[in-house]
């Protein structure tokens, strides 16, 4: 995080405290949505999150056609701080989109905090660019929209009236993992927050800003599922979790940071397997037990 951004966050935190608590109501989110060209979903702590799924891409891994909500779901989230906001996000890009998008975002005052892949053996290369900024939400949204115009990320479409069925025993998965998941576009998604207070530049980061372990199940038939996502780990947890996943037949496909000024320092470990869903859930639960994650949810 640059010095100016860090100073902004500290100043915004102090202003919020002395004002008795700034609220998201000070921001006209309809104007922010208009600037973004998309409607946000309101999540914990007043975060407004914009989904940017790559439904235009057909990516196949080991014979599994990846659903956008499984591993191609880009996003931008804004945490309100008075009349301004902290923005963070993860853009899913092709290799030819990376440089023009980066230039556009940098010109608009954003920082690039990570670029990496999540999947192995994909039929086409896909990259993930983590970004961050602060400022007036409308201006941030306009900058993001301008960058998106340099990609083939499609315009938002209405969700189907009948959501795709999840051909898995999701109740059993909930019981094994200890958390209740949510269906999304034919994928069963489970979010597991960490127990610590996580901060970026001194500001608390809610789970809706990408700080929870994400576990996704995409049914592949006969009770099997492909799994992917990322564990959010402390440095001391990386090797134990990596060793357990490998021992149980789950591939570790990426290990990296997403932010540059967070406390405590976090590492994100992505994974992949395609096997019996309940068996995989038990392995993931064992891995969660090696971390300081919350229990039950």
Compact summary:
Helices cover 28% and strands 32% of the residues. The protein is of the alpha+beta class and 297 residues long.
Can you walk me through this structure?
The chain is of the alpha+beta class. The protein has two domains: 3-148, no CATH class; 170-288, Aspartate Aminotransferase, domain 1 (Alpha-Beta Complex). It is built from eight helices and 17 strands. Helix 4 packs antiparallel against helix 5 (137-148), helix 6 (170-177) runs parallel beside helix 8 and helix 7 packs antiparallel against helix 8. The chain starts with a helix and ends in a 9-residue tail after the last helix.
The structural class is alpha+beta
What is the succession of H and E elements? Answer: HHEEEEHEEHEEHHEEEEEEHEEEH
Number of alpha- plus pi-helical segments:
8
Low-confidence stretches: 6-22
Biggest beta sheet attributes: 6 strands, antiparallel
User: What separation lies between the terminal Cα atoms?
Assistant: 32 Å
Report the sheet-strand fraction. 25-35%
Main β-sheet, spatial strand arrangement: 1-2-5-6-8-7
Write the SSE topology.
Layout: H1 3-18, H2 29-36, E1 41-42, E2 48-53, E3 60-61, E4 64-65, H3 68-71, E5 73-81, E6 84-93, H4 98-107, E7 111-116, E8 127-135, H5 137-148, H6 170-177, E9 182-184, E10 187-192, E11 199-200, E12 203-204, E13 213-221, E14 224-233, H7 235-247, E15 251-256, E16 262-263, E17 267-276, H8 277-288
Antiparallel strand pairs: 1-2, 2-5, 3-4, 5-6, 6-8, 7-8, 9-10, 10-13, 11-12, 11-16, 13-14, 14-17, 15-17
């Amino acid at each position: 995080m640059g010095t100016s951004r860090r100073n902004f966050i500290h100043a915004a935190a102090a202003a919020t405290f002395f004002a008795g608590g700034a609220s998201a109501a000070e921001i006209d989110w309809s104007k922010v949505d208009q600037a973004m060209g998309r409607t946000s979903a309101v999540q914990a702590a007043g975060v407004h999150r914009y989904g940017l799924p790559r439904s235009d891409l057909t990516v196949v891994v080991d014979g599994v056609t990846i659903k956008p909500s499984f591993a191609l779901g880009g996003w931008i989230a804004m945490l309100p701080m008075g009349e301004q906001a902290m923005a963070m996000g993860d853009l899913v890009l092709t290799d030819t989109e990376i440089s023009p998008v980066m230039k556009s975002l940098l010109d608009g005052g954003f920082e690039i905090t990570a670029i990496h892949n999540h999947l192995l053996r994909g039929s086409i290369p896909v990259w993930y660019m983590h970004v961050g900024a602060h400022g007036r939400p409308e201006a941030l949204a306009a900058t993001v929209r301008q960058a998106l115009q340099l990609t083939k990320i499609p315009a938002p479409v209405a969700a189907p009236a009948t959501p795709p069925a999840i051909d898995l025993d999701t109740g059993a998965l909930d019981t094994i993992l200890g958390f209740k998941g949510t269906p999304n576009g034919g994928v069963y998604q489970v979010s597991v927050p960490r127990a610590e207070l996580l901060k970026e530049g001194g500001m608390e980061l809610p789970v809706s800003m990408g700080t929870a372990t994400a576990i996704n199940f995409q049914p592949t038939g006969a009770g099997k599922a492909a799994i992917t996502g990322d564990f959010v780990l402390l440095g001391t947890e990386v090797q134990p979790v990596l060793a357990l996943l490998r021992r149980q037949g789950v591939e570790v496909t990426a290990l990296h940071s997403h932010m540059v000024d967070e406390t405590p320092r976090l590492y994100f470990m992505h994974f992949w397997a395609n096997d019996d869903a309940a068996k995989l859930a038990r392995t993931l639960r064992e891995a969660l037990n090696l971390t300081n994650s919350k229990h039950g949810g």
